[in-house]
Amino acid sequence: MTIRWIKATTTDALAADDMIDVEIEGRHIAIYHVEGAFYATANICTHAFAILTDGFLDDYEIECPIHAGRFDVRSGKALCAPASQDLEVYPLRIEGTDILVGLG
Questions:
Q1: What secondary structure does DSSP assign to 66-90, as a single string?
Q2: pLDDT digits (tens, 9 = 90+) for 19-34
Q3: Domain 4-103 = CATH 3.40.50.20
Q4: Phi, psi of 48 (to 5 degrees)
Q5: 8, 26, 53, 87: which could form a disulfide with 22 (CB 3.0–4.6 Å)?
Q6: 89 has which bridge partners?
């Protein structure tokens, strides 16, 4: 499968310990900036439709704003109930100040 790299945002758009919702080809994708690194996951909670970037980022964990399910932003792993299904994780790379998300 060929990965298409699409510009999502820039590194300047995200302060440390910040996150942003971007929409790419109809998909809500969350970009996180934690401990100097960037990560990308689906931005819709797998338990109930909620935009995760409306929730709370604590280190590497994003907490859903509706039912407080949590996910690891590095792996997408669901960490506690009511979330039980992992988030999709997207490959990400930095070119200059551009953050590119890989879609395949």
A1: TT--EEETTT--EEETT--SPPPB-
A2: 999 999 999 999 999 9
A3: no
A4: -145, 150
A5: 8
A6: 41
Least Cα distance to 23 among 9, 37, 39 occurs for: 9
DSSP readout, 14-83?
--TTEEEEEEETTEEEEEEEETTEEEEEESB-SSSS-BGGGSEEETTEEE-TTT--EEETTT--EEETT-
Q: Which of 59, 79, 58, 82 is nearest to 70 (CA)?
A: 79
* Long-range Cβ pairs for the range 48-52 (8 Å, 24+): 48/82, 51/21, 52/87
* pLDDT tens for each residue of 7-65: 999 999 999 999 999 999 999 999 999 999 999 999 999 998 899 999 999 999 999 99
